[in-house]
Specification:
single chain; 5-stranded mixed sheet; 20 strands
Length: about 200
Amino acid sequence: SDTQIIATVAVGTTTGAVRVSNPAVNAVSTTNFTVIQPPMLTSLSTSQGIPGTVVTLTGTSLGSTTGVTFNGTPATFTVVSGTSVKAGVPTGATTGPITVTNPAGSVTSAVFTVHAVPKIASFTPARGPVGTTMTIMGTGFTGATAVTVGFIATTGFTVASDTQITCTVAPGTPTGLVRVVNPATVTASTTSYTVK
């Protein structure tokens, strides 16, 4: 109409003033039209973590970020600058790519591995000599990489299931807490294994 024009922003357009021309005159806007480019990711501060881990996403066109998801699960995020966003791994997130979205599009990272937080419910026996085979019960054991007693690595370490680990108390082990280690965190028992 005489009071409205609808135009499509062409590919390759950059931020700048809007100009309307007719055969007699050119009219120029007093403010710039900001062209938002689709986001790009160049790196992640870490490729794995547990819920609550803060990941720094680095790239370009991140200043207009409207959403971050971890394998589809929405995350809380903070825009640090046009090249950096910090996002926390949300509860319930699973292993998969991180997706960053802005009004112009989205970008997906490589796979980000989400580890469970191991929880030790019990271990048996609660005491014994070195060489004793111990069974640890709990949750979140999938992906565990080690078990220690009194900070000494056990031997014969086997993840039987997400809820059970078996291991052998190594020579030189002192009385101490049992710890389950995965690539993102370490969880300790609330009571000690007694070496006798």
